[in-house]
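Continuing the batch. This is chain 6 of the set; chains 1 through 5 are on the previous pages. Same settings as before, nothing changed between runs. Recording input and output for traceability.
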Amino acid sequence: MLLKWAAIFFVIAMIAAAFGFSGIAAGAAGIAKILFYLFLAIFVVLLIAGIVVGRKVFS
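Output for chain 6:
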C-alpha cells in the first residue's frame, strides 16, 4: 500500500515538473521519498521478524 502511494506521488511530481510547477513537484517528490523509506523500513523489520520466527518454528 505504501509503495503504491509512493509511486502515485512520484508520478504526480513528474507531471508537475513537466508542466513547470516546481513547488508542487518538490513537495510531491518529498512525500514520495518519505513513503518509500517508510515502506523500506517496515519491509526490513518484517523480513527480519519472519526469518527469526521461521528459525524458531523449524528448528
